[in-house]
Amino acid sequence: MEDPNPQEHIDMGLQRIRILPGASDTAASFQFDQEDHTLGNALRYMIMKNLKYQTSAEYCPISPEVELCGYSIPHPSEAKMNLRIQTYEGTTVYDALEKGFDDLMDLCDVVTTKFTAARDGLTASMESR
Fold first, then answer.
1. End-to-end alpha-carbon separation of the chain, Å?
2. What gap in Å lies between CA 99 and CA 85, rounded to an integer?
3. DSSP assigned state of 117
4. pLDDT in tens, the chain (129 residues)
5. Nearest by Cα to 34 from 20, 46, 17
6. What's this model's pTM, rounded to 2 decimal places?
7. Per-residue DSSP letter, 100
8. CA 37 to chain centroid
9. CA–CA separation, 59 vs 57, rounded Å?
């Protein structure tokens, strides 16, 4: 059977993400092979944008799904990054992780588009001189 969305799946040849023991639907730790602070901090930030917190009178407009997200590098000599996610009832850590990846990819697309437009604009102004 052919994949209906071939661009959504990238075959890396190896399993680079694994779920660490003790996981539940609302709390899990993931280990990423061959990753470091670059992905860890960016992904943690995107996932935490779904943080639930209360202001003085009302909930913030951010979707109240994620209670906690943090990452660590177990040892500098190992190319591994651990990511811990805890969610409130009503969403799973797997949904939060997938949304974090999707949001991060969307952000990268916006940065690429804006960078390319600025570069092209600069190139055009340099050529017209």
1. 56
2. 12
3. H
4. 454 444 444 455 678 899 999 999 999 999 999 999 999 999 999 999 865 544 444 545 455 689 999 999 999 999 999 999 999 988 999 999 999 999 999 999 999 999 999 999 999 999 988
5. 17
6. 0.75
7. H
8. 12
9. 7
